[in-house]
Structures are given as structure tokens and as C-alpha cells.
Amino acid sequence: MLCGLIAGPFVLSSPGWLFAAVTALFLAITAGHARLPGTDGAHPLASEDTARPGLPAGVALLPFAANALAFYLYFHFQHFLAVYAVERASSAFYSVVLLLCFTLVIVVQPLASGLIRRMPYALALAVGFTGLATGSAVLAAGTRAALLAGGALITLGDIVLFLKNDLEALRRSPRSDAVVFGQQRLAAGLGACASGVLGGQLYGLGERAGHTGWFWLLAAVQCLLLPPLLLTLRRRTARLPVSDGDHEGALTRDDTDGRIPGR
């Protein structure tokens, strides 16, 4: 979000320099990771007869799928708001919208975290996806007020979905915290990628037709129609008893044993 806020004024005015700077940033991060020290020797608990489970093992299917879908829908906003907002307002106003969303994340999410943790999972999904749907529909109006209101509603929906999906994944999965977070970030990456590929085609169609507002209405329809498909996973993902030898997976309802999701 912060990167988007800084880059907002340069999205259309200096895209070449912007992407060059972002590329250099990622190269620097990659170089930094390459210099991280390795681990000497084998893990003390590992043995030749013990195979490490892969990342997909023990995945909490429903939170994983819900996270992928949430990021697919949320990244319609992240990917395409810049062009949509700059055409109707200005790059400076686009940065104002991002500043509002950024402020909501850092202020509202900590304050609402306790309420979100206690919220039943089904209710949290309903609230979150409704926020995305309502915000997307408001964006279709294309006015400055609609850009601010739509961005705020989408951000609030994302706050609920992001936090609750991670909490639910921690509650359901017997894997370690790091693995669960990795699985959830994988779901987020898959959803964001699908949003760029499929959403880009839809936005291009609307742009060529001269009615990009319809793109946001279609996004809102997806926010309402796609989440009910998750209900088909509910019976398949009923929590099974966890043996005493497993990781601290046998958590009580809405109890994550102090594990905290990270954005």
C-alpha cells in the first residue's frame, strides 16, 4: 500500500522511470536474500527416514480458497484503480485515495482485530465480500466522492477477509505458523495473478467499449456470486481430531494460541 501511495503520481506521467525503480528495488531485495547465511548441518530433529512434508501438506482448504478468492476480487481494485482514477480525477487524487486506504489499514485493523477474531467465520466472509461488492459498485459511478467511498469500503472488506482467513487457517491447520502463513501468501499470490490476467481482459473490453464503469459492476457481481461456491468446501474441510503428537493444531474455536497473522 505504501509503495502504491508513493508511486501514484508517477503511474501515467513517468511509467518508464517508475518501473525501472521498482525493478531495481526487487533486484536489491533479491541480492540481499542471496547473502543471507545458510544453516550449517542437518536439523536436529530430522532423520534420513523422515521426509519433510511439502508446503501444500496440511493446508486448511477453505481458508486457502477463501483467501485466493478474496485477493482475486480485491486486486481488481489494486490493479486497475490507477488508470480508472487518473482518467476521471488526477494522479494526485489517486494518491489521496490510496492514502485513505492506507490510513484505514493501519488504524482500523488493529482496533477491529479483536472483533474480527471473535466473529464467526461465515459471518466474517459475508461481511468482507459484501464490503468488496458494495465498494466496487460505488466505484462504477466514477466521481471523486465515489472513488473515496468505494476505496474505503473495499479496504474495510479486505481488512476483515485478510485477518479472518489467516486466523481461521491457523485454527484449522496442524502445520507450523510459518508454513500456514506461507500457504496463505501462496493463495494470495494465486488470486492476485488471476486478477491481473482475467481482470485485465475484462477491463480492456470495457475500455475499448468506452464504459469502464461496467468493469466495476461486473466485479461487484463476482463478489456476490463467487463466494457461495466456497460453501461446497465446508463439509470437506470439517476439522478432524488431532493426535497428541501433532503440532498445536487442536485449537479451540477462535483461539490461535497467540499466533498473529502478518500482512
Quick description:
The protein has 263 residues and is mainly α. It is built from eight helices and no strands.
Plain-language structure description:
With 263 residues, the protein is mainly alpha-helical. The chain contains eight helices and no strands. The chain has helices spanning 2-7, 15-34, 61-88, 91-118, 121-139, 144-172, 177-209, 213-225. α3 packs antiparallel against α4 (91-118), α5 (121-139) packs antiparallel against α6 (144-172) and α5 (121-139) packs antiparallel against α8.
Using only C-alpha atoms, the radius of gyration works out to 20 Å
Q: Outline, from the CA principal axes?
A: globular
The portion of residues assigned to helices is 55-70%
**Structural class of the secondary elements?**
mainly alpha
The helix-strand sequence is HHHHHHHH
Number of helices in the DSSP assignment: 8
Number of strands: 0
How many strands, which pairing sense, and closed or not: the largest β-sheet? none
Which runs of at least 5 residues are low in confidence (pLDDT < 50)?
41-50, 239-257
* Share in β-strands: under 5%
